[in-house]
Structures are given as structure tokens and as C-alpha cells.
């Protein structure tokens, strides 16, 4: 175990394009593939109940981005067809030091946590966040992307919850999601988020759906 925390040296990973979890954020997942059902069962047997979310760096998944984020299984429900609907609560980002060969059907990595001490601290603030213009931009982006949300909750959310939830749930490309994940501070993440929304507005691009 790491001497700084109780975070493990070896972490099971779930490589999934477009899916990131951020520290203190919450990510819903639908687990149905046999290898990830096995990973889920094994994770539940550990003290930390941690799974590492990592994005593939290439289409076939053979190469991974080096930075991911570990989430703790905090809720789960089993469906009638033996799938699991789970919730991961983000704990800390990590760096993949090496991938571990082994006998598990899912992939595991040696994880380095030392570059991400800020993730284990208190919720971050963004002193530069001007909510009025930011929410106006967000409303225009949601219109282009055909997204719906609870505006009352968004307006009342703390800085970190607002910015991180949008970073996790907005339908940006995987590489853009990775840039949001790797942002060194909440302020730089918000700046990246603004740039991505402005680009979507300029190009008329966006996804469809709703933000929970």
C-alpha cells in the first residue's frame, strides 16, 4: 500500500471511451460483460472497493491513456438479467506505471498516486468563475446539444460539483474528456470546459440527451 494513503499499488481498470470520473464526482455505470462482472465481484471483496476508470488511447484499446481516476463502488443494484447498475464515487486520479499480466479476465495496472495529492483534499473553489456568463454559455450549449437538466440544481451547486459534473457528463469527444480529466486545477478545468462549449457553438456540434 502507498505510505501516504490507503490507496492500493495495484488497481483493476475499466477502459471505457468517453467515460471519466473525477475526484468527489459520481459516475453511473452499467456492468454486463462477464470480465467486468468478475472485476466488480472482486472489487467488492476488497476494503477500498476501488475500480480505475481509464480511457483507451487507440480504438482497439491496446494502448491506454496514462492518467485515469479511481472510483469507489458506493451503490449498486442487480437487475433481473444479471447486470449491475453501479455508482462510482471519484477518489483520486492516478498514473499508470505499468500494466500487470495475470490470470484475471480484466486488466490491472500498477498505479502511482503521488502527483495527485490535491484530489484527496478538500473540495476545490474556482475564484475566477463568473456564474452569470458561464451559465449563459451553458444554456446556449445545451440548446445546440439538445441537452436538458435541472437548472435549479445547477445554479445552486458548489463550484467543484458544477464544473466536475459537467466535465463528466457533457457529450464531448474522448480526447476532450481526457483533457478535462488531466486539468491540474478546477480553474483550468473550467477554462477547458468553456473552450469546448464555445467550439461546439461555433461548429454547431453537440450530443443529445439529458444530464442527470
TrEMBL record:
Domain Lon N-terminal: from-to ranges: 11-201
GO biological process: proteolysis
SMART domains in the record: LON
Gene Ontology molecular-function annotations: peptidase activity
Pfam families per record: LON_substr_bdg
Keywords: Hydrolase, Protease
Entries under Gene3D superfamilies matching the protein: LON domain-like (2.30.130.40)
Protein name: Putative ATP-dependent protease La, LON
